[in-house]
Amino acid sequence: MKLDLNLIKERLGETSFKEAYVKGDAWKGYEVKDENNDIVLAEVSCGTDAEFFANARKDVTELLVEIDRLGGNLETIYQLTECVTTKDFAKRSLDGTATLDINVTRII
Description:
By secondary structure, the protein is an alpha+beta fold. The chain is built from 3 helices and 3 strands. The protein has a 3-stranded antiparallel β-sheet, covered by helices on one side.
C-alpha cells in the first residue's frame, strides 16, 4: 500500500481544529475537545486513547515534516552518488584504477 502524502496533508489542512485537549476522568469518561472548547471531537472511556486522539493532529504534522526532511536527504544522497556512474566505474575497473570511496558522515 502506497501512502498518498498529498491527500494526508490535504485532509490535515481541512480539519476544523488546530489543537485538542482531554477533559474528563475515569469515572465519567473522557472527551477530546477542540481548542475553543466548543466541539467534542471524540468521547472515549480510556484516558490513554483520549490522549492519543488529542495529540494525533500535532503528531501527524510532525511526521509529515520528518518525511519531507528525510525525502530531501535521500535526494541529496542520489545527487552525491550520481557522479559515480556504472560505465565510468567499469571502465576504470578494467585498467585497475577504480576506487570507490564514499564517506558521508551526516546529512541533516
